[in-house]
Amino acid sequence: MNTKHNWNLDVIAGHDEDSNPITVAQLVAALEGQQYSLDASAETIRALQTQVAELEAGLNHATARLNEQTAA
Q1: What is the CA radius of gyration of the chain?
Q2: 28/18 Cα distance (integer angstroms)
């Protein structure tokens, strides 16, 4: 009989706020979920930074044109 033991389903990594055991597998899954969330947030931040830069460029252009018209 060759049974492979999946230790990460049995080893307790800690307990939740209700003293329920948290296995290594559950902890790893939670961390992977957090990493996915962080990656998605980082992508959103990069997209927003690009959008802000484009808006600033547009505002600077509009301000320059307004200054030219005011000076004329």
Answers
A1: 27
A2: 19
Q: Measured between alpha carbons, how far is 22 from 15 in angstroms, rounded to an integer?
A: 5
Q: Quote the pLDDT of residue 2.
A: 54
Domain spans of the chain, in order of start? 34-72
**Cα torsion through 35, 36, 39, 44, rounded to 10:** -140
Q: Three-state SS across the chain?
A: CCCCCCHHHCCEEEECCCCCEEEHHHHHHHHHHHHHHHHHHHHHHHHHHHHHHHHHHHHHHHHHHHHHHHHC
Q: What six digits make up the tokens of 60?
A: 């600077």
Question: What is the predicted pLDDT for the residue at 9?
Answer: 81
